[in-house]
From TrEMBL:
Protein name: dTDP-glucose 4,6-dehydratase
Enzyme class, first EC level, given as a word: lyase
Record GO biological process: nucleotide-sugar metabolic process
PROSITE patterns from the UniProt entry: ADH_SHORT
Organism: Bifidobacterium aerophilum
Family: Belongs to the NAD(P)-dependent epimerase/dehydratase family. dTDP-glucose dehydratase subfamily.
Length: 345
């Protein structure tokens, strides 16, 4: 078992990275976290509030900046009483498909070049590297077919976003095979939970209702996503980081398949709205039909089990979080909706 003492969490001010930093602070108080985050539109420093100051180092910067990344390995190690960085968990990315369709450039830069910079640092310093990726690298499945994605599904990404994530996965495998970087990869399905940007499906619909805007459903809402609580994703990452086999890929999912229209109807019902109180808007060009994860490998090899498998309960907790944190999302709402309006979404 690998026992990290100081993890560099890239993109730790974003949705999943921040949840992971909180997860570490709650569950592994012996581990120090350094977050590097560029604080793009998707990142907020305050997402890390509440983590004890002596367990967190925050660096505001870009993962594409090789000089800055290199400096972390001396600077962080010199903080008194803190062990040198011995692992990188790489979340930082441009993460939203609709944005990638408007302008792919930042996706190629951060997701591809940024991953390259971090892999080079891991190679120079002999650092354990865990890469956070997505099930979208496998393209999509047909509605209603029994098949799910497995670790041996072929790569077939559909969007500029998923193509850039596929490229990053290939870089990680190449740096493992060619240079011996001690790397693992996880490809997870759609996460939900606190700190998710209001551009994403579930937070957008919840905050629309809270703001008096009608929810927006792409097309007929028949596309299926495989939802997992961000807490369960975090526990899977920890297991792979500490007990995963080097060079291996693990798929992470919790058997949470729902069509978009079913998710929207659940949100409407739970927020006391009529079932038809939403608008149909333009579908996503090239939009994937269905994702579904077969998580047999991580369950049998590493004994991972999801704990938060009651999706209705998870939605209630998420609705409660957005209702209680208006100050967190209100500043982003108008600009996000305006961008969608211009795309007919
Ligand atoms: P997010 O958009 O909420 O957060 C991304 C974070 O990365 C932000 O804090 C942003 O400021 C930071 N960032 C962006 N560019 C950067 C750069 N050049 N340098 C430093 N920091 C930068 O994304 P998320 O939903 O938390 O996704 C995190 C990771 O998980 C991504 O790699 C994504 O591909 C992957 N993933 C996400 C999901 C999901 O459902 N959200 C599912 C599977 C995998
Ligand atoms: O599968 C993992 C992926 O999940 C991650 O790699 C991505 O980073 C993450 O953004 C997410 O991608 P999706 O494209 O599946 O998520 P999104 O929330 O953008 O959309 C989910 C579905 O909901 C999709 O079919 C489009 C639809 N949708 C989306 C929005 C924003 C709507 O119907 N209405 C909306 O307003």
């Amino acid at each position: 078992e690998f026992r990290p003492r100081h993890i560099l969490v890239t993109g730790g001010a974003g949705f999943i990275g921040a949840n992971f930093a909180h997860w570490i602070a709650r569950n592994r108080p012996d581990v120090h976290v350094t977050v590097i985050d560029a604080l793009t539109y998707a990142g907020k420093r305050e997402n890390l509030d509440g983590i004890p100051e002596d367990r967190l180092t925050f660096v505001h910067g870009d993962i594409c900046d090789a000089v800055l990344v290199e400096s972390l390995f001396s600077r962080a190690g010199s903080r008194s009483g803190v062990a040198p960085i011995d692992a990188i968990v790489h979340f930082a990315a441009e993460s939203h498909n609709d944005n990638s369709i408007l302008d792919a450039a930042p996706f190629l830069r951060t997701n591809v070049d940024g991953t390259y910079v971090l892999l080079e640092a891991a190679r120079r310093h002999g650092i354990r590297f865990h890469h956070i990726s997505t099930d979208e690298v496998y393209g999509d499945l047909e509605l209603g077919e029994p098949r799910k994605f497995t670790e041996s599904s072929p790569y077939k990404p559909s969007s500029p976003y998923s193509a850039s994530k596929a490229a990053s996965d290939h870089l990680v495998r190449a740096w493992h095979r060619t240079y011996g970087v001690r790397a693992t990869i996880s490809n997870c399905s759609n996460n939900y939970g606190p700190y998710q940007h209001v551009e994403k499906f579930i937070p957008r619909q919840i905050t629309n209702i809270l703001a008096g805007i009608r929810p927006k459903l792409y097309g007929q809402g028949l596309a299926v996503r495989d939802w997992i609580s961000v807490e369960d994703h975090c526990s899977a990452i920890w297991l792979i980081l500490t007990r995963g086999r080097i060079g291996e890929t693990y798929l992470v999912g919790a058997d949470g398949e729902y069509s978009n229209i079913d998710v929207l109807r659940m949100i409407l019902a739970r927020m006391g709205q009529p079932a038809d109180a939403f608008d149909h808007v333009n579908d996503r060009p090239g939009g994937d039909k269905r994702y579904a994860i077969d998580a047999t490998k991580i369950m049998t090899e590493l004994g991972w089990r999801p704990r938060y498998t009651d999706f209705a309960e998870g939605l209630d907790a998420t609705i409660a979080w957005y209702a209680a944190h208006r100050d967190w999302w209100e500043p982003d709402k108008a600009a996000t909706e305006e961008k969608y309006r211009l795309q007919g979404h």
